[in-house]
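Dear H.,

Thanks for agreeing to be a second pair of eyes. The structure we're designing against is below in token form, covering all 443 positions.
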């Protein structure tokens, strides 16, 4: 938007104020095109007032003697032209060289756009991107409640689930099996081998025993042992026959076997049915002693370390990890792809419950809003200069003319009021000065 350098500035002709349209680069949206139309209209109005003042000035000097009322009209039109031209020069000098003349300290924005961008960036960072400015705005926004209302709608829950599934699929596609193998072989296994594992195993075993988490396993083992012994009575018969001397009669072996089988089954049944059986208590004490031994530097701990290290160094460990990873991928992909599956349904139910709490639980919503506001405020405080630098970086990337066009597009319409005010105020000042010149000789 440069001025036409060949235009001549006469009292009867309006000084050029650039082309009537903003460059296409500055108009990227319907809103920008509307701004360009408004800018042209205001520019024409301001220029029209200048032309009107010039016409009145010429008419009064050509066809009147400039006395009486006509003197006031002449002086007012003359001062109006001076004010309009001066303000036209001031407004134009911001964006270009008036009349194409490279007058010092004109075309300020094209010449100083980088400095102005940096100053604007610093101004925003110092005055806006502060915790005490950002946090209160976010608290008033009630983000949690509004997000809950949005999430309460089924279509939005579906969107969230689908986007999460797409993100998971994106990650799965980019995690290579060779990378998993390399991490397992070169990082995970060596790290586990070099780590002192026995104390961790001892603490874990102690927690399991103290919480009684192993009782179900004991119930299962004892129950299965009772069923197996009941279904395989000949096992005890064979053991008795093998251990008995050859001279013992067979009927005696059968009697011992029947008696032993009855006693063993009875004892196993007691252990199975009595959760406080002495055998169970003895097992708990032994496990606690084992856990304590593993936590301290004992021979048991050393042997456990050796066994675990040997197991970890086996090639089958890497293959097992890869098989687990492959199975996990299949399960995850199946859950992601089945939009009507159980996983999607459960996630949607969870989202619905979360949304309900976000809307109905006032204390929860207030707490979440406070956390969001505090976090956003701290981030704005910490990274304000970096965030605001997008302003200076963007302006620095603009061409000088493009920067001038864009800025004029947004503020040029209001700046035309300066020209209009200059014309009006100039006319009023002209009237006052002319009145003073008439009054002073009489004093």
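And this is the sequence the design step returned. I haven't edited it by hand at all.
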């Amino acid at each position: 938007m440069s001025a036409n350098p060949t235009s001549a500035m006469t009292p009867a002709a309006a000084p050029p104020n650039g082309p009537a349209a903003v460059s296409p680069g500055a108009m990227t949206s319907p809103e920008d095109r509307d701004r360009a139309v408004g800018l042209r209209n205001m520019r024409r109005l301001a220029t029209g007032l200048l032309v009107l003042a010039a016409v009145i000035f010429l008419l009064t000097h050509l066809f009147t003697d400039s006395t009486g009322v006509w003197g006031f009209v002449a002086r007012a039109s003359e001062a109006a032209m001076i004010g309009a031209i001066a303000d036209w020069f001031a407004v134009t000098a911001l964006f270009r060289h008036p009349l194409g003349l490279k007058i010092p300290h004109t075309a300020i924005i094209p010449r100083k756009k980088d400095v102005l961008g940096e100053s604007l960036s610093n101004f925003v960072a110092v005055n806006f991107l502060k915790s005490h400015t950002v946090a209160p705005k976010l608290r008033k926004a009630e983000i949690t409640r509004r997000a809950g209302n949005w999430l309460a709608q089924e279509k939005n829950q579906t969107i969230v689930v689908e986007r999460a599934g797409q993100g998971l699929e994106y990650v799965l596609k980019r995690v290579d099996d060779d990378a998993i193998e390399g991490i397992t072989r070169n990082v995970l296994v060596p790290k586990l081998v070099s780590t002192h594992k026995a104390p961790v195993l001892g603490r874990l075993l102690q927690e399991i025993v103290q919480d009684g988490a192993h009782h179900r396993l004991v119930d299962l083992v004892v129950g299965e042992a009772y069923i197996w012994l009941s279904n395989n009575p000949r096992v005890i018969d064979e053991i008795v026959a093998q251990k008995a001397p050859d001279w013992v009669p067979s009927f005696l072996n059968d009697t011992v076997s029947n008696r032993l089988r009855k006693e063993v089954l009875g004892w196993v049944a007691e252990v199975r049915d009595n959760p406080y059986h002495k055998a169970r208590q003895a097992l708990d004490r032994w496990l606690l002693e084992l856990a304590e031994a593993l936590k301290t530097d004992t021979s048991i701990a050393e042997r456990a370390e050796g066994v675990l290290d040997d197991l970890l160094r086996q090639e089958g460990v890497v293959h097992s990890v890869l098989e687990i990873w492959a199975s996990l991928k299949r399960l995850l992909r199946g859950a992601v792809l089945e939009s009507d599956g159980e996983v999607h349904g459960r996630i949607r139910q969870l989202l619905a419950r979360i949304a309900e709490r976000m809307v109905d639980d006032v204390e929860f919503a207030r707490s979440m809003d406070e956390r969001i506001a505090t976090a956003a405020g701290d981030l704005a405080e910490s990274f304000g200069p970096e965030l605001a630098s997008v302003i200076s970086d963007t302006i620095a990337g603009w061409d000088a003319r493009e920067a001038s066009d864009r800025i004029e597009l947004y503020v040029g319409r209001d700046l035309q009021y300066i020209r209009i005010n200059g014309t009006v105020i100039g006319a009023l000042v002209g009237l006052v000065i002319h009145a003073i010149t008439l009054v002073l000789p009489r004093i």
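Two observations from my side: The chain is about 80% helix and 0% strand. Confidence is low (pLDDT under 50) at residues 1-26.

Warmly,
E.
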